[in-house]
Amino acid sequence: MFKKLLIFKIIFLQLIGLSIFQVKKTNAFIPYYYLPSKKFLKLNGSEIGKNAYQLLYFGQLKEGLALAKLAISLNPEDVNLWALLAEAQINNKLFDDALLSIEKGKLINPLVSELYFAEGSIYISQNKKQKAKKSLDKV
Question: Any idea what DSSP says for residue 21?
Fold first, then answer.
């Protein structure tokens, strides 16, 4: 009788233990990468461009240039961002880079007057009066 009771207790405890410590089958974790849409990137590029403009306005020229480059990398089809990048490059005395940025902006929309004004101001600072006059006449 004692043996049966002992066996019953052992079986009972094992059943309780199995129900408490039951390991459920789990699937492996699958890594998930968020890939933003092009629309989301363009919107963020414009917002970053606004922040870059504010930094330039308050005299933080290197930080404004870095944000303008980031904005362009997110939204390279925005002419206003190209004009902003050119302005940041002018403020940082990177005139050749600014001229390249202006040319890229002109390829997108050649009717934006800010690009020609920035180009004219570069040529004036480089003492190239004829080129400056051509650019400023297009404004």
Answer: S
- Encoded amino acid at 132, one letter: A
Q: What is the pLDDT of residue 13?
A: 64
Answer yes or no: pTM beyond 0.85.
Answer: no
Please report, for the domain that includes residue 134, its CATH number: 1.25.40.10
Q: What angle do CA 19, 24, 26 make, to 5 degrees?
A: 170
Residue 79, Cα to own-chain centre: how many angstroms? 17
In-domain check, residue 6: no
Which residues of the chain are modeled with pLDDT < 70?
1-6, 8, 12-30
Q: Is residue 12 part of a domain?
A: no
